[in-house]
Give the backbone structure.
Amino acid sequence: MKVSEILTVKGNILYTVTPDTPMLDAINTMAEKDIGSLVVMEYGDLVGMLTFREVLKTVHENNGNLGSDSVRKHMDDHPLTVTPDTDINEVRRVMLEKHTRYLPVIDAKILLGVISFYDVAKSVLEAQSFENKMLKAYIRDWPDEAKA
């Protein structure tokens, strides 16, 4: 399975901010849209990511307050990225090794979307469930799970 397949199922809704967006506005967007990350774009280019990790770090650094800074000061300005052709197993490895929950998907400097740890887990589960059903259908007289 490739990243492009996850994006096809997930859709291409993407929420972005600029580096000069006030942190409060960015956090309000995250809360209102029930999302864990925002892509930070400037002049059409990906320049960073703002996730709940950076938000919590900001609040911690400001002794429980958000402060009045812009996204630029707190964003991850070197986010890891993947391409549409990246294999799902590579994505899983990167997410686990680098402790990242969100990966922008880039193709020739064009941002196509963001995949999350949740998106990956859901896709893998669905693929395994489909494979399981196909294997059971292949084996004759497999006991029905409801009867077991």
